Amino acid sequence: MRTLLATVVRGLRARALLSAGSVLLTALAIGSAVLGPIFQVAVTNSYLVTRLDEAPNELTGLSWRFQPGSQLDGDVDQAVRRAGEAATAAVRGPFAGPQTVLESQRVPALGGAEVMLTAKDGACDHLEIEGECPTEPGQVLMLAGDRDLTELPIGEKIDLGPDLGTVTLVGGYRVPADEADFWFQTARFASFPPQETRTGSKPYRPAPLVTAPATFDTIPAGQWSLRVDRRLQVPADLQLADVQAAEREAVGLNGPAKQVEGGTLRGESINDISSIVAEARGQQRTAKNSVAPAVISLVLVALALLLRLLMAAADLRLPELALASLRGLPRRRMWALGLSEPMTLLLLSIPTGGLIGVGLALGLVRWWLVPGLPLPFPATAVLAGLLVALASIGVAVLAVGLVLRVSLSDQLTGVRRPQETSRTGLVVQLALVALAVAVLASKLSAGKPGEPDVTDLVLPVLLAVVAGIAATRITAAGATWWTRARRTTRSLSGFVAARAISRRQEGTLVILPVTAAIAICVFGAGVYDSAGQWRASVAATAAPAPVVWTSPLPMNETVALTHELDPDGRWLMAASRLNTLGPTFTVVDTARLARVGSWQEQWTPGVSTAHIADELGLRATVPTVAGRRVGITLDNQVESGSDLFVRLRLDVPGDRPHFAYLGPFGPGEGSATVDAAYCRGGCRLEALTVGGPAGLPTSMEGTLRVTSVEADGAPVEGGIEGAGWTRAQDSTSTGAVTGVTAAGDGLEIDLDTQGQQAIAQLSSGEIPAALPVVRGVDASTEAASGSFSETSENEFAVDPVITSQSVPFLGPSGLMIDYTMLTTDRAVYEQKATVYVLARDDTPASVVRGLQDRGASVTTTLAGVRNTLDQGAYALTLRLYAVVALLVLLMALAGLFVSTAVQLPARRRDAASLRVVGVTRRSVMSAVVREFAVVLGGTALAGLAAGTLAQYVVLRTVTLGYVEDLSTPALIAAVDWQRLVVLALLTALIFGTVALASAGLTVRGARGSTLRENAR
Question: Residue 815, Cβ neighbours under 10 Å: how many?
């Protein structure tokens, strides 16, 4: 035993480079196996914490309505205490303590508005106040925007009826966006203007008037209640089991009101923890499936390189094994002798690998994941490490077995002669090729993208291995053919290089692991980069601008508000989602899209946002009429059943459309004016209608020439020429107008109702029959009918002028249309539309205050959505691919360096033999460089091709993250050729350096004395 131990120590010292390389590769393989399960559990926990922490309180927290009984009349403090106790007893789990807000019933006041009071201890500390904080009963604050609309001065008395009494206005307030936790949600302070809908009108509902809690002591108990909220607490060590417990507590919360001490308690929660839990489970599965290929890649490359190094070490021990065989050592002891060194290395590698895995996991968790997240250590990590250790032992046994199969004569000479591939090896290689072809065919014929499956996991590694095998065989076969077919070649160095490749197995054996390493590196870098671009696309779909505000105003008033606050369109843009009987639209103020929006270049490659705005916007400029009186001058050459009247549609920004009736107009020239004080600030002249008295249909035939449109007696600039007057597309009017011609001297309208009673309507802006839209790749453009009419509900034909991978808010399944194109001379019912204000993150504070004053609240931000996506389990797991790509490349370079160093003595002997027979130093060096260029060049090309193919195929069939709904844009399976070229150049630089260095070292030691030394 002592002799064996001494032999092992001497051998390890003599082959220190190989020994260190073997320990390093084995430790990295075991460490990678340990890292994978730990990181997979950690990223799932981190995603859960991040997702819950960034979710709105109303989706993760709980809310109740406590209605105090008559016994608490006038005792607000007691009611607050009872409400908190009832909410605490109602639900257990990881929720914060109750926070209560007093709210009154809404009562008519301020000329028909519906007004309510609210109060909370410490409210003034969490509001931006202009004026004084209400400290006495009856003092109130009003939302700043409501104060501007109502024009109420400080000190004004507001009568809220007999129950709430009279209150005094002492100031205005705004709700900072970062105070959502104190108020539970800031959207409760929205102000809703009066709205006219098809089903009726809704009164003005200003934001709550903030008052002192003592005010409620004077209000009868039946006229006020308490809203009780409990936020979800999200510590860094929160586990999925804790959230599931909270989910169970929230089930059934919104049942009937329950009698509690002091009153009744009724749940009013919109808690959606169940969806977040389901999403976390999906992320957990995806992360688990995603970690596997990264770990497998590292382990397989490490094992392949380890086999190469152990075989090189065994080759160097051939004389030692031959001597043992001559002494008659039995086969069992020969195996013990052969395995002594590799087993010693493995014993050193196992604890080292465990430490590397845990240390790397700890570093990545601290660097990338939620601060304070505890490091998990699942049993699967230990199991994976042990499996890799057993695989390493198998590799060692295989390497020693291959050496012990060498004949005694070859062992004595110490030379391994080239051998043909065994039948078993050939069968294995063919099986791998067949499996790769089958998997590749199944992936290419797959349908829509889905979650990664087993084929996605094995394909990159399988293609890498097959590419390595193919590169090895093609390189060796090509070199053999060259040496046989070019025996009379004039290039001596070329012949020497080809013969060395064909006969020296050590040179070609490095191709397989290095090819696999390059392929996996290319695949990992490509997937990581593509996933980042996909997350950017998803984030821009959900948040089409740096900051997204929800507006309580309808779309027309929101557009007017953005133009009022930001006349030049530098920071704000209005948008909404409009549902029709056919498709769903995103309506945007496209003139501001290029400046404000977060449009992704990959949605419409080669098409700029400026071009999109041009394609979607009006073809002509709608005239603007500014004045208190509006008039028109015309020449009537129409034969009609009655005098003609003209109706002008005048649209006031932020207001309903107004109609001005002018006439009657008899035959010949005439003019008329009408009072239009609402246009003193400017109106858009969107339509012109010709008909009988009171706008009734009449028979018309002939030509009507409109010579001018006037405002306060002066012609409106652009009222005729350049206004784009065309026949309106309304089905009730298209038959009356037979021609429209605009010239400098007027607008000629040819009319012919063919004896029927009809009206004639024209629209400005040159609106086409089918409205231009940007179509999502999966969107349908089929409308409920072929045209739009004011009696139908949002029906109009569309023309998809641009196809996009995604559109804001709706993704690939929606359409995007311009607001002015949609609403010019058209009634659009938006009572169910969600309206937004999109803003840049550098919006001035004064503009932000203007949005807050009108009741807008921040819904989300692009950075917030992107951060949530970047913290997703799959996104965090893909960061591991970057680590994998780096480690695989380092392992391949380490293996290449060690392999080259081991081959150096043999190469020097070959070079010395050539120098002895008169071959020049330059030719010898050229032969070595050519040999390396062919071997490493083929390796690089095979690796780049295999990695690129794997990336393209896998990205076509998987979704690189959690798909929430149909609004999630698809992944674009494009290969970044620029990145590929950079990788190719980097690979060429590294391999070229290795080739030149090896050639230089080979030639430097190639002397005749080298042969004499070996002979001794």
Answer: 25
